[in-house]
Amino acid sequence: MKFMLLQHYGRVEGDVPPMSEWAPEDVEAHIKFQLDLNAELRENGELVEAQGLTRPELAKIVLATPDGPPVITDGPFPEAKELLAGWRMVDVESEERALEIAAESSEGPGPNGVPLRQQIEVRQVMGPIEP
Q1: What are φ and ψ of residue 87, in 5° steps?
Q2: Do you find a cis peptide bond into 56, omega within 30 degrees of 0?
Q3: Contact in structure between 41 and 92 (CB atoms under 8 Å)
Q4: How many whole angstroms separate alpha carbon 104 and alpha carbon 88?
Q5: Which of 63, 75, 107, 126 has a 20 to 30 Å separation from 14 between CA atoms?
Q6: CA 8 from centre of chain
Q7: For the whole model, what pTM was predicted?
Q8: Is 12:119 a contact under the CB 8 Å cutoff?
Q9: Cα–Cα dist 106/119, whole Å
Q10: E strand or H helix at 80
Q11: Which secondary structure element, helix H or strand E, spans residue 84, and what is its range?
């Protein structure tokens, strides 16, 4: 069974500033935690893919128009509540295992090594969409 584990900006316990405001050693510790978790999942044969995304302010929003070229704007902006930070796709035996991995991921360290207790959205992958 494949599951996407989605990590969002801003969905953490407490008042944690954006990663761009963390001390360099805290950023390194958080990234090391993520890489170590990926390595463990890869070793177990459970990791399909893991990706982080650039900061939200580097994103573009594209909107098709009925007549003419699409409208392309910068964004999303910090006031947006749903900003995706990255994801893991895992291939596991059960939903329970996917939830265990999500719980472990939620504990990633934040500033001063304090666990973020970040909300991780867990969604089963339905499979390819074919005509």
Answers
A1: -155, 160
A2: no
A3: no
A4: 12
A5: 75
A6: 5
A7: 0.84
A8: yes
A9: 6
A10: none
A11: strand 84-91
* Encoded tokens for 54: 């650039």
Q: How far apart are CA 72 and CA 74, in angstroms?
A: 7
Contacts of 22 (CB under 8 A, 6+ apart): 30, 110, 111
Which of 13, 33, 26 lies closest to 104 in space, CA to CA? 33
Residue 21 is encoded by which pair of tokens?
Answer: 């405001």
**Hunting for tokens 């599951």 — which residue is that?**
3
Q: What is the pLDDT of residues 58-81, one digit of tens each?
A: 888 899 999 999 999 987 665 555
Residue 82 has pLDDT above 70, yes or no: no
Q: Are 19 and 34 in contact (CB under 8 A)?
A: no
Residues 1 and 95: their CA atoms lie apart, in Å, by 8
Distance of alpha carbon 45 from alpha carbon 25, whole angstroms: 30
Q: How many residues does the chain have?
A: 131
Compute the distance between CA of residue 131 and CA of residue 120 in angstroms, rounded to an integer. Answer: 31
Angle between helices 95-106 and 24-43 (to 10 degrees): 160
Strand pairing class (120-124; 2-8): antiparallel
**Rounded mean pLDDT of 20-35?**
94
